[in-house]
Structures are given as structure tokens and as C-alpha cells.
Input
Amino acid sequence: MSKQQLILENGTVFVGEQLGSSNGMKGEVVFNTGMTGYQEIMTDPSYFGQIVVLTYPLIGNYGINRSDFESKAPFISGLVVREAQDVPSHWRSEQSLDAFLKSYDIPAIQGIDTRKLTKMIREYGTLRGKICSMDVDASEVVKELNKWELPTHQVSQVTTKMSYTSPGQGRRIVLVDFGMKKGILRECVRRGFDITVVPATTGAEEILNLQPDGVILSNGPGDPKSVPDAIQMVRELLGKTPIFGICLGHQLLALACGANTEKMRFGHRGSNHPVKDLETGQFMLTSQNHGYTVDEKSLELTQLSVTHLAINDQTIEGLKHRDYPAFSVQFHPEASPGPEDSNPLFDKFQQMIEQTKKAGVQFA
Ligand SMILES: NC(=O)CC[C@H](N)C(=O)O
Output
């Protein structure tokens, strides 16, 4: 097996074995602690442009099958694993991890100490990195990485180009796709919603013209401040239709209400992040994938209240608007991968729609 290297901006070089392609790609190196779910992680558009380190030491043992994908293709810029299993064993498996990565020309590396790398990221924060073949001069790459600015317009690369519908007998929902995971659509379909999925660039007026009973703001990659038009769109929707924000959608709701977001040192990525629901006092295990968070102090001047908190670091995991039907969560109630403890939040949104209807609120 040929060797491959992972070069980091701080000058560290990990030498391992080639997995996937050897086509060098730069990315922000982040880690995910989930024990399963590598297919969902690789195809979650929120990871667009990132090099993902999986801390679970054996990856690929149940192979690859398209029904587990969270979008049509993988969006990561690289994968780092301790050991990849090349002979998958699962009745649904269509190909091996290595064959899958090669077919999308995604570079990956195995056989390195992922514990050491993860500790490094925890200490220094996420690092810019590049996976490439051994004939590349590492010191040149370190220079290149230090000059490289992380991309900012990821949403435009992963949002749907055109609107589409998924008809249902229930309430009419507009789902704004900032890089939506399929799981969100699945949960809406499961509840019988009549769904229109629209591109991230859709304006508030266009959304209201669809006469939605509610709007869901999806997850998506990158800095929430890099989509100012979407923040404006959410601001204009507030009070006119019930809103449910998920992950990037949560951050956009916060920004639209006047709060601030900031980049975290190394983010939350995994399938067992404990969260406390401050309204019920209940705890839940959640699936998470975010590198930004809402700044708690910035909430003072807004009409937002905190509904959920992360147990590990006390960061904000959920918000609700005090005057309008709008709430959001930083984690993933659609799971995929991860536990389904927070799945009832989709029911909560449905109830919010019904209550708003009952109250006979007239929207402009
Ligand atoms: N999964 C998401 O929607 C992530 C939101 C945002 N890109 C972040 O990293 O914080």
C-alpha cells in the first residue's frame, strides 16, 4: 500500500497509508467522535470542504450503501481514520470505503495515531491541513496552508439550484435548503407535510408567496455570517409564519434577531452530545456537527430565550422567540447518524403550527 501524508498548518506531518485518492486537497481538520455513521458524516453537506478525523478506530466495516446517504454525494475534502476495513460485511453494502472515496476522488489516510491528532485539535483548535502523496514537499505545503484563507461561500455550493416539492396531505411547509441533510426532509415527509424545498437565496417575499404554514431553516456549512441575505430573509419572516431552525438555521435565527455567533475552538461533532432541555429539565443525547455557536451575552438585547444547553461546555443548544412562533436547536433532531431522543422537536413544530392556526394569527 502506498504511503500518504497529512500535513497541518502548525508543521506537524502524519505519515500513514493511502486510502481513497492521492489527489491533494486542503481543508479545515475537524474530528467526529461517533462510533458509527461514517456514511452519513461523509454525505452531510455541513462538512463541505472539511477534512474529517473519525476517532472511532475501525471504520468501513459495514461498507457503503446509498440509502444511508444524507445527500447525493460526499462533500468532505478528506478523511482520516485509524484503520479502514477493506472487506465490509453488511447485506446492504454496495462497495468498500476505499472504493467509494476513490470514486469521488477524495483523499484519505489511515494508520496514523488519530488520538494524538484529536488531542492536538482539542488543544490548538481546528487546524488547516492537506492530505497528499509522499512526493509533495511538506514544508512548502505548511507555507501554503498558513497563507490559505478558509473558504466562506460554502452554502452556495451545496444548496439546491431549483425549488422542488414533495406533496403531502398535511400542512404546507417551506424548507430552506442551506445544505440540507436528507433526514430533515424524511422527518417532514413522515409527518405528512406538503413540502416545498427552496434554494438558500430565496427571499422572504417569495417564501411567503408560497403561503407556508411554517418554515424550516436547514443545517448547512460554514460561517452563518457568510450568508447575510439569508439572515435578512429570516428577519423578514419573523412573526409572519412559524419558524424552526436547525443547526445553521438556528444560528441564522439568532443573527436575524440581533444576537451574535462566534467560532468555537474545535466545535461539537459526534453522536452522543448531552443536552439539557431547560423547559422540561430533561436530558437528551444528541447528534451534533457545528463549529460556530451563539454568543450567550449577545442575547441580552434580543427577544430570544435559551431553551437548551450543552452539558459538556454550557454552550447554547436551543433558542425560542418570546413574541413570535419561532424556535431553533443547534443539534440535529433528525439524527442520522445518532440517537433519536430529540426527534419530538418536529412534533413540537407541528404543534406550533396548529396553535398558530387556532389563534387565527393573520399574516401580512
Ligand atoms: N451542521 C450545521 O448546520 C453546521 C452549522 C455551521 N456551519 C457550523 O459549523 O456551526
Summary: Residues 345-358 form the longest helix (14 residues). The pocket of glutamine is lined by residues 46, 219-222, 247-248, 289-292 (CB under 6 Å).
